[in-house]
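Reopening: structure tokens for the pyridoxal-5'-phosphate complex, inputs below.
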Amino acid sequence: MISTQTQPTKLTFDVVKIRKDFPILSQQVHGKALVYLDNAATSQKPQVVIDSLVRYYTEFNSNVHRGVHLLSEQATKAYEESRVKVQRYINAKRSEEIIFTRGTTEGINLVAQSFGRANIHEGDEIIISGMEHHSNIVPWQMLCAEKKATLRVIPIDDNGEIILDEYVKLFNDKTRFAAYTHVSNALGTVNPIKHMIETAHAHNVPVLIDGAQAIPHLRIDVQELDYDFYVFSSHKMFGPTGIGVVYGKKSLLETMPPYQGGGDMIKSVTFEKTIYNDLPYKFEAGTPNIADTIAFGVAIDYLNSLDFEAIHDYEQELLEYATEKLSTVNGLTIIGTAREKAGVVSFTLDGIHPHDIGTILDTEGIAIRTGHHCAQLVMQRFCVPATARASFAFYNTKNEIDALVDGINKVKEIFS
Ligand SMILES: Cc1ncc(COP(=O)(O)O)c(C=O)c1O
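Re-run output (same inputs, fresh job):
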């Protein structure tokens, strides 16, 4: 019998050992040891996740929910096991509350097109924040354009923190929905989500939280904070691309119409009428991303095998170390200095375009992200065209941060 369970062993945190789980990290780039500091864009994958993909296609590739043959039963079992692993990972009450999507972007579109189209009407208002990724702006803009509704934006201060007093003022009797990020990908800010959700709920407004950047760094308990919708991607949490999750409260999901029509999301079809399937299948039309979903479950097993508190403390130590070291570089400005941050240092260098910084660092084997990070409105807020962004995962080291600082000094030399 095929099982996708890996054997969890509780480890105390040992970065040297952990790095061996990620084969890509021992690679050389341009003849230099790879220093991968672009984890906010996508994280690297441990060998167990890679093995899971190979194993699925080698041993039991088959379609799910349809076949009566053994391979299909095995694929279905493994696919549904992943749903339960996600449910437990975020402490959802029920596995039907876990909807698989292609990722955060598709998840937000699902909620906007399904919940939004059913519940937002002319004159209504939706609140988002001024630090959103484009994925949590554009779907709401599209909905507002269609419904003649209005988007209201929570301003952010010079540190990159949400101005809570202004947030409260945005609520009125036209407010129907709120959507904001848990952690900013461009600034690293961790938002006071508990307080923000309580405020929205006090006005009877449901909230979608974009958890894309939070889920790799923070323990998420969807019941504890009473999340209505929590959306995230596997590829930022050491799993494969092309698979993500919408967590939704059952009471909300049940009222929502399907987002897409097709196979698997139906109970029966006649030319006159379709009866939709139950949750979660109502929202999973067509053949799903089976291999990646199963491997996503293996990534969750892998995360469960680590000591989460130790990882969290270590990542915070890396962030503090990087912030301290980078602050000593003349001409370097850190964009995003919130009191609570997770895993991101965005910066500019006087007189040097971020793309030049990124290109020169690449020749040193150092991978960072440069540009607007799909957060053009954050760049506008801080009056910069772009930033260079180093983002960390638990497999990074202080030596790699030292390499980054040396690399930045080289960039400065070249431009001096
Ligand atoms: C805050 C945030 N939201 C949404 C997304 C979109 O995620 P995906 O590209 O996996 O759909 C990202 C990706 O960088 C992100 O950082």
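Residues 70-89 form the longest helix (20 residues). Residues 6-11 have pLDDT under 50 and may be disordered. Marking as resolved unless the reporter disagrees.
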